[in-house]
């Protein structure tokens, strides 16, 4: 059986990576538009009507416009921020309990944000198990490669005479109102969004999301690293794309490189602890993989009834 798929916005970073993954899949036919019609809403809607699923790789406003005019029966996976907390949309993080079946049957799926994916993967299991109070006040730092900024930022970083400031990691989102915060709060089921500190650094792709915790923030029986690692391992048991690394004292792991999983579509979770009541949870993945296009292909596979990991690297 051949599935027809339309990628709206296939010239952007996420769209290109999705197309790369699907182009060699024998049961996928990618429906494309001539260059002159790629911004023609009517032509794009016709392409969506002729496809089983449409993947939107558009700016938020363009995604909202498309969805506003698309028939309710049109199956859409939107990679923008526009619909991640919208009523009627299924959040596309398949490994969260109950989400896989919801994605498979949905007509509207919102692909998660990259930073949000790491934070939610770490915190949602703790909230579900009662290990962490939903009223907890958390902080989160996320280190990302510059590809997350799209074509303009990629060109800026790869210019022959780039500014010296781009040679160092740069803290951004200093308004403390990053666009991923609403889904980070809602999908982790926290009452409050975390204090979020994103950092972009001079490497192409990869992401390392870190959440520090004090033992006093955790419920009785969960306030040590081994117990938290076991909780996460139980939650993600059998998942091919989210794997929890065995717990080890912090001193046994010298460093974590944010680009260690670049080019892959899976995620690794770590728990570190120092024995003095301090813990550190980390999610390592590719911002373009499990943080964007890899997750979109995973959701597409579920929506089409294909093998969930078809076309993915892990």
Automatic annotation (TrEMBL):
It holds the Pfam family Semialdhyde_dhC_1. The active site is at 114. Its EC number is 1.2.1.38. It is found in: Cytoplasm. Pathway: Amino-acid biosynthesis; L-arginine biosynthesis; N(2)-acetyl-L-ornithine from L-glutamate: step 3/4. It comes from the Bacteria. The keyword Transit peptide does not apply. Keywords: Amino-acid biosynthesis, Arginine biosynthesis, Cytoplasm, NADP, Oxidoreductase. GO terms for molecular function: N-acetyl-gamma-glutamyl-phosphate reductase activity. SUPFAM superfamilies: Glyceraldehyde-3-phosphate dehydrogenase-like, C-terminal domain, NAD(P)-binding Rossmann-fold domains. Residues 4-104 form the Semialdehyde dehydrogenase NAD-binding domain. InterPro entries: AGPR (IPR050085), AGPR_dimerisation_dom (IPR058924), AGPR_type-2 (IPR010136), NAD(P)-bd_dom_sf (IPR036291), Semialdehyde_DH_NAD-bd (IPR000534). It catalyses: N-acetyl-L-glutamate 5-semialdehyde + phosphate + NADP(+) = N-acetyl-L-glutamyl 5-phosphate + NADPH + H(+). The keyword ATP-binding does not apply. SMART domains: Semialdhyde_dh. It is an enzyme of class 1 (oxidoreductase). CDD domains: AGPR_2_C. HAMAP family: ArgC_type2. Catalyzes the NADPH-dependent reduction of N-acetyl-5-glutamyl phosphate to yield N-acetyl-L-glutamate 5-semialdehyde. Belongs to the NAGSA dehydrogenase family. Type 2 subfamily. This is N-acetyl-gamma-glutamyl-phosphate reductase. It comes from Kingella pumchi. The lineage of its organism: Bacteria, Pseudomonadati, Pseudomonadota, Betaproteobacteria, Neisseriales.
């Amino acid at each position: 059986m051949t599935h027809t798929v339309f990628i709206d916005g296939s010239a952007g970073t996420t769209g290109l990576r999705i197309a790369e993954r699907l182009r060699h899949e024998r049961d996928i036919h990618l429906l494309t538009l001539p260059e002159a019609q790629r911004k023609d809403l009517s032509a794009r809607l016709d392409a969506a009507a002729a496809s089983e699923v449409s993947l939107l790789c558009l700016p938020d406003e363009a995604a909202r416009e498309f969805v506003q005019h698309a028939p309710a029966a049109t199956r859409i996976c939107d990679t923008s921020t526009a619909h991640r907390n919208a009523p009627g949309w299924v959040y596309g993080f398949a490994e969260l309990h109950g989400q896989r079946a919801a994605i498979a049957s949905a007509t509207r799926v919102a692909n998660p944000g990259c930073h949000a994916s790491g934070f939610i993967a770490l915190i949602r299991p703790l909230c579900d198990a009662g290990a962490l109070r939903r009223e907890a006040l958390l902080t989160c730092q996320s280190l990302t490669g510059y590809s997350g900024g799209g074509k303009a930022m990629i060109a800026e970083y790869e210019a022959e005479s780039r500014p010296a400031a781009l040679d160092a990691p740069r803290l951004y989102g200093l308004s403390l109102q990053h666009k991923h915060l609403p889904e980070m709060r809602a999908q982790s089921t926290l009452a409050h969004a975390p204090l979020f500190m994103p950092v972009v650094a001079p490497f192409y792709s990869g992401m390392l999301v870190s959440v520090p915790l004090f033992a006093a923030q955790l419920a009785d029986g969960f306030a040590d690293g081994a117990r938290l690692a076991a909780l996460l391992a139980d939650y993600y048991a059998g998942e091919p794309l989210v794997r929890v690394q065995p717990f080890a004292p912090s001193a046994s792991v010298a460093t974590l490189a944010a680009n260690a999983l670049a080019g892959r579509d899976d995620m690794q979770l770590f728990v570190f602890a120092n024995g003095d009541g301090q813990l550190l949870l980390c999610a390592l993945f590719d911002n373009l993989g499990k943080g964007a296009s890899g997750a979109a292909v995973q959701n597409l596979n579920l929506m089409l009834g294909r093998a969930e990991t078809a076309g993915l690297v892990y």
